[in-house]
Amino acid sequence: MSAIVVFCTCPDEAAAERIGSALVADRLAACVSRMPGVVSTYRWEGKVRRDDEVLLLIKTTSERFDALREHIAALHPHELPEIVAVEIARGLPAYLDWIARETQP
Fold first, then answer.
1. pLDDT tens for residues 58-97?
2. Side-chain half-sphere exposure of 66, counting CA atoms within 13 A
3. Of 9, 28, 15, which Cα lies nearest the Cα of 68?
4. Angle between helices 65-75 and 13-25 (to 10 degrees)
5. Which of 12, 32, 47, 67 is deepest in the core (most CB within 10 A)?
């Protein structure tokens, strides 16, 4: 089991709540933390944009990533949602075990 954190920005709190709740309910994530107040500057369709967003920090396993990615893509209001995963190199063993248990199908 390899624990990962998936980053996903949402356009508002409602979308963040909907996605986060669905991921935990469907056991695709052990925990989803919402961080409001994120400001993203990016280039989209030839223009530089700046948007207020809510960042999701999604704790899951690499084994559940493909299903999680598909679920986010289906629920997310953006045409091209940010879905980026990084491995957790180290952590409290009991917490990492909890992530594994809570994401078992």
1. 999 999 999 999 999 999 999 999 999 999 999 999 999 9
2. 1
3. 28
4. 140
5. 32
